[in-house]
Amino acid sequence: MGKKGKEAARERREQRRREVTLLRALPYEPHQRWWDHLSPRAVAVVTGANRGMGFEAARQLALHGLHVVLTSRDAAKGQEAAARILAEAPGEARVSVEWRQLDVADAASVEAFAAWALETHGGIHVLVNNAGVNFNKGPDNSVDFAEQVIETNYYGMKRMTDAMIPLMKPSPYGARVVNVSSRLGRANGRRNRIGDASLRDKLLNDDCLSEQLIDEMIKRFLEQVRQGTWSSNQWPQMYTDYSVSKLAVNAYTRLVSRTLSDRPEGQKIYINCFCPGWVKTDMTGWEGNISAEEGADTGVWLALLPCEQGTHGKFFAERREISF
After folding, report:
1. Which terminus of the chain is more exposed, N or C, with fewer CB under 10 A?
2. Which InterPro entries match (predicted)?
3. C-alpha dihedral (290, 193, 161, 302), degrees to nearest 10
4. Are 86 and 58 within 8 A, CB to CB?
5. What is the C-alpha to C-alpha distance for residues 202 and 187, in angstroms, rounded to an integer?
6. Is-contact 299 70, C-beta < 8 A?
7. How many whole angstroms separate alpha carbon 299 and alpha carbon 270?
8. Which tens digit of pLDDT belongs to each residue from 122-157?
9. Contact 282, 161 (CB under 8 A)
């Protein structure tokens, strides 16, 4: 892409950013606010929510009137974040937030959280799988922490999704699962795709896509990392371990959407993923070009979509569907 092409692409992004800013300013109509028709209050769980975009997603959902369970590994940071949302909320807002410890990379922690959610709230209505890590910044592309990245970003999301779907409360409005992902994880991305054309085709083909296929891809990548034989010609060239983890998140979102697609009315669960963009948070070394508030917007929008607009197994950015 030449200089003019880059400038045109930048202008398109800025134009869409301005459009979304205007959309965010529009209040939901009473008939669109499905969560207001539930009693007791709709429950939303946000993972990794003590800071950054997870905190913003929790804050925005709470301001919209849902009861938010803000989760984090660190108790002090999580409790401080929950208290901050309550303290900074406008006086007229009916804000309800609580903190709960959760480490998505620990199966026992996820199991304990699920048992608590069932006992305390009888289930949930919204799950935002935000918890994630990335150890590369700027031009870096180390895979030294690949195991931790994959364990948190992919297996953690998978663990939470599998544990929470049985706890989704029946409702005429449906429940929602929103997975935070990235354009870096697109199977057929123009600049960061995997080199194995056969694997790309299988991941994008619903008839071939399976949990086994996704997990075998992850296993092969990690095995090559351990052996020192991985190559950026075979795997995404930028932030390779992070990109592979998000490629798996995208594929698993599509896979789960298939299993949920035939649920009867009153038991619908809508699952989608989204790319927040390059957000100014600790994960990006504060080098992003949008705020955490802007980055969280599409995820919150998906969590609150009116049931008549319910979408399933799609990938979004800036409130628009994009390709996998």
Report:
1. N
2. CBR1-like, NAD(P)-bd_dom_sf, SDR_fam
3. 40
4. no
5. 10
6. no
7. 13
8. 999 999 999 999 999 888 999 999 999 999 999 999
9. no
Catalytic site residue 242? Answer: yes
The two structure tokens encoding residue 189 = 């991305």
DSSP code of residue 107: H
Q: What percent of the chain has pLDDT over 70?
A: 99
Residue 237: HSE in the Cβ half-sphere, 13 Å Cα cutoff: 8
Q: Is 126:44 a contact under the CB 8 Å cutoff? A: yes
The answer, yes or no, to whether the previous bond of 172 is cis (omega within 30 of 0) is no
Contact assessment for residue 65 and residue 126, using Cβ atoms and an 8 Å cutoff: no
How far is 26 from 21, CA to CA, in rounded Å?
9
Give per-residue burial for 24-52: e unless 16+ CB within 10 Å, then b.
Answer: eeeeeeeeebbbbeeeebbbbbbbbbbbb
**What is the Cα–Cα distance from 64 to 238, expressed in whole angstroms?**
36
Which token pair is 171? 């409702």
Identify each DSSP E strand in 79-189 by its residue range: 96-101, 126-129, 175-180
Listed ranges 101-110, 191-200, 307-316; the one with the highest mean pLDDT: 101-110
Mean pLDDT, the chain, rounded, equals: 94
Tokens of 281: 């948070």
Out of 154, 155, 239, 242, the active site residue is: 242
**Cα Rg of the chain, angstroms:** 19
Percent helix, strand and coil across the chain, each to the nearest 5: 50, 15, 35
